[in-house]
Amino acid sequence: MSQPSSANRRVTSSSSLRHGARWQGALQGQFRNFLYGWCIDIEQPQARVVLEVCLNGETVGCVIADVARNDLVNEFARALGGQAATDHCHGFVADLG
After folding, report:
1. Could you give the strand order of the β-sheet that contains 34-41, starting from the edge strand earlier in sequence?
2. CA dihedral for 69, 72, 73, 79, sign (positive or negative)
3. Which residues contact 36 (CB under 8 A, 6 or more apart)?
4. Parallel, antiparallel, or unpaired: how do β-strands 67-68 and 34-41 relate?
5. Which residue, 11, 25, 63, 77, shows the most beta carbons closer than 10 Å to its own?
6. Burial class (CB in 10 A: 0-12, 13-18, 19+), 48
7. CA 53 to CA 7: how far, in whole Å?
């Protein structure tokens, strides 16, 4: 996932790691008016990433990826090039209202 995320389509479970990108993550799904996923800054894995949520090209809000996601330990390790993440708080839930 790049720094801003786009929410102008129905989303399904996915993993979208891009090799060489500073920000790694995935927009994993939608439940009613909530989007959820994860994002990690591989250059500063202890930092929190602020995501801009856009709908049809317009910003509708911001969310901080700071939710504990122990279920994604392997994804975080892959994003960090095989090293284990000591901080698992990189999930997010965005309320689209």
Report:
1. 23-31, 34-41, 89-95, 67-68
2. negative
3. 28, 29, 30, 91, 92, 93, 94
4. unpaired
5. 25
6. middle
7. 7
Provide the 8-state DSSP code for 14.
-
The bridge status of strand 89-95 relative to strand 49-55 is unpaired
C-alpha of 1 from chain center: 6
Under DSSP, the state recorded for 82 is T
Give yes or no for a contact between 48 and 66, defined as CB atoms under 8 angstroms apart. Answer: yes
- Full DSSP string of 28-65: EEEETTEEEEEEEETTSTTSPEEEEEEETTEEEEEEEE
Rounded CA-CA distance 88/73 in Å is 7
* pTM reported for the whole predicted model: 0.73
